[in-house]
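Good morning N.,

You mentioned wanting to compare the apo and holo forms, so I went ahead and generated the holo version with FO1. This is what I fed in:
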Amino acid sequence: MTAFSVPHVVVLAGGVGGSKFTLGVREALRRTGAPDATVIVNTGDDLWLSGVRLQPDIDSVLYALGGQNDTVRGWGRAGDTERVNEELQAWGAGWPWFTLGDLDLGTHLARTGWLRDGATVTEVVERLARRWPLGVRMLPMTDTEVDTHVLLEDGGRLHFQEWWTRHRATLAPAAFENPGIENAVPAPGIVEAIAGADIVLVAPSNPVVSIGPILAVPGIRDALRTTRARVVGVSPIIGGRVVRGMADVCLTAIGVETSAAAVAAHYGARAEDGILDAWLLAEEDADAAASVDAVGIRPLVAPLWMTDVDASAAIADAALRA
Ligand code: FO1
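and this is what came out, ligand included:
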């Protein structure tokens, strides 16, 4: 990519995979000398807990781009302490299996205060994004409050965070739901960003609970289908396995095989009824290229392990070159 062909880039992202990939996109674009990226972040796994609003995916991207993230745990702030959390546990408040770090709580308190003062989620994210130089524009997928519920095979229903962090996705899910999402609207600027983009990248995030809610906000899917930009997805599956997290359990629940080709087919080709023009496959899955091509999506093959920022930047660069 040269300085005279700097594209307007939009990234759809959520979770650890999304934040690592976004770091790579920022780095790849910095090398062009004129970075210009908008990151649309999943807010489907947000929740209220102990009176504060948590936005795990917004915070993952915020902390990673701001250089504040705990890279070992994969969530929360580096070097955080848990004094307030111990007090909350002593009071029997919150969830005993869910840790709210002290520094992280500062973010939740600030966010909750601004929301209580009447700010929209977009305005709150804008304020959060001012503290550290992020190098990208970050937008929540919607200003509407949306949660993710897991419907269990035994008939139960849990908030996604309880299913994910307490039960580590071990309770068999039958479906994932975002109650009320059908009435949500894209956050201000999202449809315009997608329409005005040269390229839209779908991060290697969980296709069901990170990218799924973004695509379920009425208007976003249509924007992706009608943009003049190329829409390029990056496979979250390497060598037939999920790279991290428990996305395989989520995929199985919605009837999608844990393979790079099946996830591409799940997103679908823009020429048909889907959202993708091209799909970046891991070298380990190169033999799936023909199946991806067969569903009308152009397959591309590259190393996909996001071992460090340079590796993530090389992946982003391969996607941008599509
Ligand atoms: N993940 C955990 O596995 N255990 C936790 O106690 C935990 C706390 C937590 C607090 C704030 C936050 O923003 C995220 C937190 N996460 C925790 C991560 C989160 O549950 C998920 O990994 C994401 O929501 C999935 O994208």
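Residues 122 and 140 are 6 Å apart (CA to CA).

Happy to go through it together on a call whenever suits you.

Best,
F.
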